[in-house]
Structure formats: C-alpha cells, structure tokens
UniProtKB/TrEMBL annotation:
It comes from the Bacteria. This is Helix-turn-helix transcriptional regulator. Residues 11-64 form the HTH cro/C1-type domain. PROSITE patterns: HTH_CROC1. Pfam families: HTH_3. It comes from Arthrobacter silviterrae. InterPro entries: Cro/C1-type_HTH (IPR001387), Lambda_DNA-bd_dom_sf (IPR010982).
Length: 91
C-alpha cells in the first residue's frame, strides 16, 4: 500500500514539475480527472491507466526498464529460468 502512495505522489510531482494541469493529463491519457486523482493519491487503478499517464508524463519507458528483471544482478544470474518450459501434463 505504501508503495502505491509513493508512486502516486511521484506521478503528481512529475506532473507538477512539467507544469501540466490534471485536466490536460487526464485528457491526453483518455481517462477522467477522477481516475487521475485516484492514481495520484495511490488509491489504485488499472495498470493500463498508470502506463498511459506515465506515457503522457514521458516516463513509461523508465517504468518498463525498472521492472526488467535483467536489469539486476539477480535477474541476470537467473536469466536461464526465463527459458523454462512448462512440464508436460501427466496422463
């Protein structure tokens, strides 16, 4: 929960630093102002809305890169696990 509040606060701060009013960001993201307000308050929302707002704010690629498991030592060390296939079903 704390993470969503921090993420929302960061989105709001980015919007303010860019000088963009909520109405404009919501319009460009094709969401309601109320939805944007909920995202900025950290009250949840759809991932697609988050990513659309992030795109409007110019940080969508940053989020994608931050979640890439291969951008960490652990992820690179265990990259072979990403190529595993499901075990065949037993009949």
């Amino acid at each position: 929960m704390l993470e969503t509040v921090r993420l929302g606060a960061n989105l709001k701060a980015r919007r303010i630093i860019l000088g963009l009013p909520q109405e404009l960001v919501a319009e460009r993201a094709n969401i309601s102002r109320a939805t944007l307000m909920r995202l900025e308050a950290g009250e949840g929302g759809k991932v697609e809305h988050l990513m659309t707002v992030a795109s409007v704010l110019g940080i969508a690629e940053d989020i994608i890169q931050a979640t890439d498991p291969l951008n960490s030592d652990l992820g690179r060390a265990r990259a072979h696990l990403l190529n595993r296939q499901r075990a065949p079903r037993r009949t």
